[in-house]
Amino acid sequence: MARAGSATAKKTAPALPFGQVEREDHPWAIQLVKHSERSESAHFRAAKEVAHKILDELAKDERPYGPGPYEMHHGGSLWVRTGSGWRMFRARVGIEWSMQFCADPAKIERLRQEAADLVAAFPDTLPALEALGYKRARKLLDTPITDADGVAAWTDSLFNACVPLTRGHHQGILPTAAGEHHYPWPIKGADYIRYDDFNLWVTLPDGTHAAVAPVSARGSGDGHLRIVHARHGTPAGNVLAKAQRRRLMAVLPPDSPMALEAFQQQIPPGARTASGRPRSRTARGRTRQNGT
Fold it and tell me: What percent of the chain stands above pLDDT 70?
């Protein structure tokens, strides 16, 4: 591939009626085209409507991914009515809308069976959904999936399409937010369980972002960080891949800018290392009240 900045690094083909094509010397081509008009299916409209009714019944601290406002993510949303109220479990696999067109009906049928087994364990679920106006739930759970129409109905159903996420958690790009559409779920999931004063995503020297995790338990005084995700093709991504091939960890030292960023809210202002006893929450609160 030609060096960046050279005259042959990027060539643009003549404009075509259906979109722009970009190429480089090492042959590849991507067409940049407008989305075809995508109308919401009746299945998706019904699923969203009942999902919002369910969320309205939950206190803000009971909702699975925060108080909203929400976009509905096709991420495998298995809503059930328990003795304590509504709860959402994630399916073994979620079907993103665009991925239904490569989905094998036999494999989606297994997802339906697994959802039906879960709902059967919570017998209040179907009557409660019907009371909220979601009359199609029973048929969806009872009808074997054998063709593309069945896949489409399941894809846009309450049991797949209604993981309630904010726009940032859904489609965000760092440094603004890390969305589930762009970052690996095993890493992105930590956004929902991490301590509020630990920064999961840090800025690397090349301006890209990495996800990091402490190597020791909270309170240990160890400020080393393990890189758990970095963009492919970047220096950090290459080091991480090399470490994984050797079954090693890629670790940042406690005095690195990335470690100071990750532990910023836990260490004293101006600290030169992330190692040491973390500040108490009371001390952090006093610092914020003092405006520093």
Answer: 82
Say which range, 26-35, 126-135, 225-234, has the weakest mean pLDDT.
26-35
Distances (CA, A) of 236 to 123, 151, 223, 256, 268: 49, 39, 19, 14, 27
- What are the distances in angstroms from CA 98 to CA 78, 103, 114, 163? 20, 10, 22, 16
Q: Which of 185-194, 250-259, 277-286 shows the lowest per-residue confidence on average (mean pLDDT)? A: 277-286
Round to whole Å and give the CA distance between 64 and 55.
9
Rounded Cα distance, 205 and 223, in Å: 19
Boundaries of every domain in the chain: 42-165, 185-289
The answer for residues whose C-beta is within 8 angstroms of residue 200's C-beta and 6 or more apart is: 178, 187, 190, 191, 194, 211, 212, 213, 262
Task: Assign 32 a pLDDT band (cuts: 50, 70, 90).
Answer: confident
**H/E run at residue 214:** strand 209-214
DSSP label at residue 16: B
Burial of 200 (0-12, 13-18, 19+ CB in 10 A): buried
Distances (CA, A) of 244 to 190, 227, 272: 20, 11, 29
Please, are residues 276 and 253 in contact by the beta-carbon 8 Å criterion? no
- For residue 16, the cross-strand partners are 19
User: pLDDT for 94-112, tens place per residue?
Assistant: 999 999 999 999 999 999 9
Helix (H) or strand (E) holding 170: helix 167-171
**What is the identity of the amino acid at 113?**
Q
Nearest of 146, 156, 152, 39 to residue 101 by alpha carbon: 152
